[in-house]
Design goal:
Length: about 300
């Protein structure tokens, strides 16, 4: 896969892709590339105005592109259920389910509608429920894939089962790292289950390295009116260590479309510390390979989401 780019995406005619958070950043770039390759793309996100702007830009880039919008708030299990039902009712199957949406490093503790810490709730628990509700449609595809976007931050993450929602002592960055580790563990466990059950499904993780998107500003500014330390650090280091959102989307697109992409793997940039560069198979931290933790998190997630 040396220097893999969007030009290497196989034709996607007839493919149906559902992407969360694709109104901007990496999700938008993935949606644009898939639509350009001929896929039918459904953008599922919370911000309808920004989603409509994204649809217009994709249609301008690819006249005749089949792209639509579905309102989805991953911080609400009710919204997840309603949107998943709408999508399932109108689609014959889903070839690609890309779990992309996320929020990072919220400075103060916020809760979702269901009482989950916001990063754990929106980044992971919402996506868990979303995937489970759409899994029958995904399983009905000929060669289905679930691609879950994790992060280099998984390397610093630990699953704190004693205080999963950070009610005792909230810390923004450890909370984010836990949520992105959880997304990776979910991807790995889903693929393990698929193999054990003999499903055709591939569950694959991806991470964008250090791609400059609104992720670095939206979360850190939540509830505040000025830049935080993370945003300032991003502006300082970005020119030297980062890549564009389009480049950051390549690992996701490789995981979603490349014939050689393997289930149970993670793909990320090939550069120093996997910060930027063309997609390759990425390193998964040793503590993320404990299958007992995969299973325990899955069981807890089933309890939390019903």
């Amino acid at each position: 896969m040396p220097n893999w780019t969007i030009k290497d995406i196989p034709p996607q005619t007839g493919c149906i892709a559902v992407i969360t958070g694709a109104n901007s950043g990496i999700g938008y770039e993935a949606a644009k590339a898939l639509a350009g390759a001929g896929a039918k793309v459904i953008i599922a996100s919370r911000n309808e105005a920004r989603a409509k702007e994204a649809l217009a830009k994709i249609r301008a880039a690819t006249p005749g592109a089949d792209v639509t919008f579905e309102a989805l708030d991953l911080a609400s299990l009710d919204s997840v259920a309603r949107t998943a039902t709408r999508i399932a009712d109108r689609l014959p199957h889903i070839d690609l389910l890309i779990n992309n949406a996320g929020v990072m490093a919220i400075p103060d503790r916020h809760e979702t509608e269901d009482g989950f810490e916001m990063q754990m709730g929106a980044n992971y628990i919402g996506h868990f429920a979303w995937t489970m509700r759409l899994l029958p449609k995904v399983s009905g595809a000929e060669n289905p894939r679930v691609v879950t976007v994790s992060s280099l931050a998984h390397r610093s993450g630990r699953i704190n089962f004693d205080d999963l929602q950070w009610r005792k002592r909230y810390r923004p960055w450890p909370a984010y790292c836990q949520s992105k580790l959880a997304t990776l563990l979910f991807s790995l466990e889903l693929d393990r289950i698929a193999r054990a059950e003999g499903w055709k499904l591939k569950s694959i993780a991806a991470h964008p390295g250090y791609a400059v998107t609104s992720l670095q500003t939206t979360g850190p500014r939540m509830g505040r009116d000025r830049p935080g330390s993370l945003e300032l650090l991003t502006k300082l280091l970005g020119p030297f260590t980062s890549q564009s959102a389009a480049a950051g989307a390549l690992p996701t697109l490789f995981a979603a479309t490349a014939p050689e992409a393997e289930g149970g793997a993670m793909y990320g940039p090939n550069g120093f510390y996997e910060l930027k560069g063309p997609p390759v198979r990425a390193k998964i931290a040793a503590h993320a390979r404990d299958q007992a933790i995969w299973r325990r998190l899955w069981d807890v997630s089933e309890q939390l989401t019903g």
